[in-house]
């Protein structure tokens, strides 16, 4: 009678529940959970190793490309200025008062610098806040995509060259945009030190990016 009453109330001495489901013991449940936890931990460790390997491969590829770029666009510090491929770029303040006879050399150097910035952004996957057009030549120009909130209004073009018939203010704006793009690049990679005064030399900023990427963030130029 007692067994019959337990069956009617849902008890099951033979280890089965009232609905026909097996009644797991506490020890069996614990062992099953522990096994699932071990499997999950093993999967996490395997995924982590795979991601680390992919990151090392990507970083090695970036380093090779950075080395090649530094060979194409070597940046050197001269006595009074910085130079890229032998073409000097003085400070932004001095660039605004350059002799027109030096225009071709200056615009060529700025075109090289613009191309270097675009190339570094592509290698390191850094989105730029400026748009660079015709990079690498002496007639490069910049656009600020965020200049207007109206998407139907095309951004203005600011030349990285100057000469007769061109507004000097547009050239100066292009220099500021290029400087802001370099500073944004430094900031995005964690190299921009707000405690130090911002450099007014564009090539010095570019040289800092290349040096930090190739030799480590803790290295000094």
Automatic annotation (TrEMBL):
Q: Which GO terms describe its molecular function?
A: SNARE binding
Indicate, by first and last residue, each region the UniProt record lists as having compositional bias (Basic and acidic residues). 1-11
What is an annotated GO biological process for this record, any one?
A: SNARE complex assembly
Q: Tell me if Flavoprotein is a UniProt keyword of this record.
A: no
**Keywords from the UniProt entry:** Coiled coil
Which parts of this chain are annotated as the region Disordered?
1-27
Question: Is Acyltransferase among this UniProt entry's keywords?
Answer: no
The highest taxon in the source lineage is Eukaryota
Any one of the GO CC terms: lytic vacuole
PANTHER family (UniProt xref): UV RADIATION RESISTANCE-ASSOCIATED GENE PROTEIN (PTHR15157:SF5)
Question: What name does the UniProt record give this protein?
Answer: Uncharacterized protein
Native source species: Alexandrium monilatum
Q: What is the lineage of its organism?
A: Eukaryota, Sar, Alveolata, Dinophyceae, Gonyaulacales
């Amino acid at each position: 009678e007692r067994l019959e009453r337990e069956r009617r109330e849902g008890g099951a001495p033979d280890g089965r529940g009232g609905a026909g489901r097996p009644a797991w013991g506490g020890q069996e449940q614990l062992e099953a959970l522990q096994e699932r936890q071990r499997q999950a931990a093993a999967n996490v460790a395997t995924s982590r190793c795979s991601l680390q390997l992919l990151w090392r491969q990507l970083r090695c590829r970036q380093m090779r490309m950075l080395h090649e770029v530094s060979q194409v666009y070597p940046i050197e510090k001269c006595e009074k200025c910085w130079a890229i491929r032998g073409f000097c770029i003085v400070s932004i303040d001095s660039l605004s008062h350059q002799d027109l006879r030096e225009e071709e050399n200056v615009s060529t150097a700025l075109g090289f610098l613009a191309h270097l910035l675009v190339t570094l952004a592509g290698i390191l996957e850094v989105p730029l806040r400026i748009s660079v057009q015709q990079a690498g030549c002496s007639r490069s120009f910049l656009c600020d995509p965020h200049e207007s909130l109206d998407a139907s209004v095309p951004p203005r073009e600011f030349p990285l060259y100057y000469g007769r018939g061109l507004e000097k203010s547009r050239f100066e704006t292009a220099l500021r945009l290029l400087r802001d793009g370099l500073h944004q690049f430094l900031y995005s990679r964690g190299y921009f030190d707000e405690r130090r005064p911002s450099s007014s030399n564009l090539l010095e900023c570019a040289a800092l990016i290349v040096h930090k990427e190739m030799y480590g963030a803790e290295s000094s130029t």
